[in-house]
Design goal:
The chain is mostly helical and 219 residues long. The chain has six helices and two strands. The protein has a two-stranded antiparallel sheet.
């Protein structure tokens, strides 16, 4: 069966051509991601300011984070970025089965990330480092540790919400790909979803050294 011309594929009435539709979707995602940068930027600024103000206390608290779990999760997300990029490439070349499988793999890696993060949260609850609910640290830097963990749970919690949303989007794209919803002429939803997923991964790349590596590089 021959494919429809580019300007007749899944064209919404408000667009003149499918190319315009694709470019608008990509631009919309970039604008959305720019607002997300501002959102995370505010929290990262607060973390940077407090870390500069209380360097010893923040370093002491950071040394108690579960760096092994954090490192494994970093590898998991980097791998998911690879499978997501591969899925976009497969969609671009009209490989329906490969696209669906790679998207499914990306979603599963996202679930693995959340599972490991949940395990980490459970360990931190047992250790009594959850400010406002279960915080039992003592010592001269206890108040600084509380600030660190407030920011830690805020940053990783909001990031986890974004990962959860991303998993839903990727899973939806996997189902659509399996049903033949995309082709070499129309794979914009996969591409836009990929932009979102890479953004989520990029945020974690910033969080990982701030949370897990601070205070571990020195003597």
């Amino acid at each position: 069966m021959s494919e429809a011309p580019l300007d007749q594929v899944h064209l919404e009435p408000q667009y003149a051509t499918a190319r315009q539709q694709a470019e608008t979707a990509a631009l919309g995602m970039w604008v959305f991601l720019a607002t997300e940068v501002l959102f995370f930027g505010g929290m990262l600024f607060a973390y940077t300011y407090l870390r500069a103000t209380f360097p010893e206390g923040f370093a002491e608290a950071a040394r108690e984070t579960h760096v092994v779990i954090g490192t494994i999760n970093t590898v998991v997300l980097l791998t998911s970025s690879f499978t997501m990029a591969w899925a976009v490439h497969a969609a671009e070349h009209d490989r329906r089965r490969a696209t669906a499988l790679l998207l499914a793999a990306t979603a599963l890696l996202g679930l693995l990330f959340l599972g490991l993060k949940g395990l980490e949260y459970y360990k931190e609850w047992q250790e009594g480092v959850v400010p406002g609910l279960n915080f039992h640290k003592d010592g001269p830097n206890a108040h600084v540790a509380a600030m660190f963990y407030y920011l830690y749970f805020m940053l990783t919690g909001v990031h986890g919400v974004h990962v959860t949303i991303g998993i839903g989007l990727v899973a939806l794209m996997a189902v659509r790909a399996w049903r033949g919803g995309f082709s070499a002429r129309y794979f914009t939803p996969v591409e836009v979803t990929g932009l979102y997923w890479h953004f989520v991964d990029l945020v974690w790349i910033f969080l990982y050294p701030l949370i897990y590596l601070a205070g571990r590089s020195g003597p």
